[in-house]
Amino acid sequence: MIVAYTAADVRTAEEPLLAAGVPLMDRAAFALAGVVVRELRARRGRVAGSRVVVLAGAGNNGGDALHAGALLARRGVAVLAVATAERLHETGLAALRSAGCSVVSVADGGPGARVWPGDAIAEAFTADVVLDGVLGIGARAGHSAVRGPGAEVLALLGELVADERAGGRGDGPCVVAVDVPSGVGVDDGDVPRPGGSNGSGSAPAGEPGAVLAADVTVTFGAPKPALLVPPACASAGRVEAVDLGLDLSGARPAVARLEPRDAAALWPVPPRAAHKYTRGVVGVVAGTPAYPGAAVLTVSAAVHAGVGMVRYLGSPGVTAAVVSHRPEVVAGDGRVQAWVLGPGVDPTDSAQAERVHGALAGVLAQELPAVVDAGALTLLPERLAPWVVLTPHAGELATLLSARGEDVDRAQVEAEPLRWARRARELTRATVLLKGATTLVVGPDDAVYAQADAPAWLATAGAGDVLAGLLGALLAGRAQDLAGEPSLVAALAACASLVHGRAAHVANPGGPVAALAVAEALPRTVAQLLAS
Ligand SMILES: NC(=O)C1=CN([C@@H]2O[C@H](COP(=O)(O)OP(=O)(O)OC[C@H]3O[C@@H](n4cnc5c(N)ncnc54)[C@H](OP(=O)(O)O)[C@@H]3O)[C@@H](O)[C@H]2O)[C@@H](O)CC1
Ligand SMILES: Nc1ncnc2c1ncn2[C@@H]1O[C@H](COP(=O)(O)OP(=O)(O)O)[C@@H](O)[C@H]1O
Ligand SMILES: [K+]
Fold first, then answer.
1. Residue 324 and residue 359 in one domain
2. Which residues does the annotation say bind (6S)-NADPHX (predicted)?
3. Is the CB of residue 375 less than 8 Å from the CB of residue 346?
């Protein structure tokens, strides 16, 4: 599991080490320089003779970058530091100068010759590596946007680098972010607008913010939430965490990301003496005559995920389609350990709406775990419970929140997904799984998971139905454990997202996938996870 800690928790953990004179910055800079050396070797085939531009802000983040620059210079790299502030980290600047590097400044009164931002950008864009050490965890929450001349350099260089990457020429610089890409909301993953503020001013997904997107982020002590949470995580590139020996055992992880071995440990493997009822029964209310396919996809996923039994409830016509596709399915009501409610359910279909309401009453009264998706998201009572997992995409979350008095649209949810997923959890008391390229889960006690396991090929109609069926099977399979451990529900939701994403890879590595193929890849995916 990868766990991220807030800036405040990392600072608190640094304090005793700094007080004891542990040279944390030296460790950070040494590791940072090591990553740059590896990137230079891999991308340019050499270290000595390469060019590195260090963008350095006023604080310790700049200090890390300057010390790393000095170490690189001693290995024959031509290093130019560009100061984005009037004053730079003192020992970092001294180390850089004594290693023979040049320093220029885009800030008035800064060290070295004053240069225009355009000149600094030209130097950076033609370098082999750019180190982004403008701002780290010193960014103020809610106001993380870089201020001053550094903002212009980062924004324009960011645009050039993005264009170059999109063109696929491969001759632009490798961008290495120091600790975090400068300017992101460290704890919430926001990306501010160019020249703007955070919050409602955040850049909508897809638009560039004033952040220089990194190829690699070298993060110190522990990953920070922004490296896992969208939209900022899209600017982090590969994340390399450097162990500084911080003791974070007293701190609560702010965000977690399950890895395959975690998912394997969470997966319900039937014991020798299992029978279908001990393995769990999942009830599915999905599909309407207008959307029969959603029912087929949901039950297919549940069957392939390996549940003890699937019971299906729907109109006679849809039931016939379901059973003809999946003869394992049992049609009609009966006892279940978990429910999946809503895929392909048109809320105006009174028969299905009634089944959803009936199931929900049992869910709340008997503490039965449930997945609530798509059409059923508009059929909910005000308050739910943590064992209910809502699985909206951004548009559905905006609708759900708007129905509860929040003034928010899809673009705003995409700009601040963690904030709005948390708000939905607060308002409904349910566990919230917000689907996207990175899927967020916010569970009881505000536990947050961020999973990014899927290829973009998974963004296809019906993929959400597969996730709902898969998660329902998982909840049914672990229903007994859930009763005594409500926080498990969020971990299981994250686990389902991981398995779903990996199944898309397994279904057709490197190419397009159909939703049904993802469901059919589940048995192999789970087997691979359990074997690894
Ligand atoms: N402690 C250690 O030994 C270790 C620390 N580590 C490293 O230190 C980093 C944290 O360093 P930090 O605390 O100095 O904060 P940092 O991110 O450099 O920014 C503060 C400076 O930026 C300025 N500034 C603030 N907001 C701004 C804005 N919006 N736009 C522009 N400027 C802004 C602010 O100026 P002010 O606003 O106060 O005038 C201040 O000068 C951390 O990320 C990690 O890299 C690791 O090496 C481990 C060892
Ligand atoms: N860019 C992307 N990369 C990876 N996965 C994605 C991306 N966009 C969406 N997904 C995933 O694809 C699925 C789409 O689900 P959903 O929007 O509910 O589709 P549908 O309602 O048609 O089934 C979700 O699991 C989501 O996390
Ligand atoms: K930085």
1. yes
2. 60-64, 179, 294, 344, 393, 465
3. yes
Q: Could you tell me the strand order of the sheet in which 330-331 lies?
A: 2-4, 255-257, 448-451, 439-442, 431-434, 388-390, 370-372, 338-341, 281-285, 309-313, 330-331
DSSP-derived letter for residue 506 is H
Range of the domain at 412: 280-531
Atom of ligand 2 nearest to the CA of 515: 23
Instruction: Say if residue 357 is in the same domain as residue 318.
Output: yes
Give per-residue pLDDT as tens, 363-411.
Answer: 999 999 999 999 999 999 999 999 999 999 999 999 999 999 999 999 9
Q: Which amino acid is at 172?
A: G
Number of domains in the chain: 2
Ligand 1 centre from 64 Cα, in Å?
10
Residue ranges for the known binding site for K(+) are 61, 132, 182
Binding-site positions for (6S)-NADPHX: 60-64, 179, 294, 344, 393, 465
Tell whether 11 is covered by a domain. yes
Per-residue confidence (pLDDT) for residue 207, from 0 to 100: 42
pTM of the model: 0.95
Residue having the nearest C-alpha atom to atom 25 of ligand 2: 464
Ligand 1 neighbours, Cβ below 6 Å, are 14, 18, 24-25, 28, 57-62, 64, 135-140, 145-148, 150, 178-179, 220
Q: Is residue 53 part of a domain?
A: yes
Same domain, 335 and 455: yes
CATH number, residue 135: 3.40.50.10260
The per-residue pLDDT for range 505-526, each reduced to its tens digit, is 999 999 999 999 999 999 999 9
Q: Which of 139-153, 188-202, 332-346 has maximum average pLDDT?
A: 332-346
Q: Are 188 and 226 in contact (CB under 8 A)?
A: yes
> Of ligand 2's atoms, which has the minimum distance to the CA of residue 391?
18
Q: Please give the annotated binding residues for AMP, written as ranges.
A: 435-439, 464
214 and 307 housed in the same domain: no
Q: Which of 298, 378, 391, 435 should be mutated for ligand 2, with most atoms under 8 A from CB?
A: 435
Note whether 49 and 170 are same-domain residues: yes
The set of protein residues with a Cβ atom below 6 angstroms from ligand 2 is 374, 393, 435-437, 439, 454, 456, 458-459, 461-465, 467, 500
Same domain, 247 and 293: no
Q: Where are the beta strands (DSSP E) in 86-145?
A: 102-105, 113-114, 129-133
In the structure, ligand 3 is a single-atom ion and the residues with CB under 5 Å from it are 61, 132, 136, 178, 182
Tens digit of pLDDT for each residue in 152-192? Answer: 999 999 999 999 999 988 789 999 999 999 999 999 999 98
Interatomic CA distance for residues 68 and 238, integer angstroms: 19
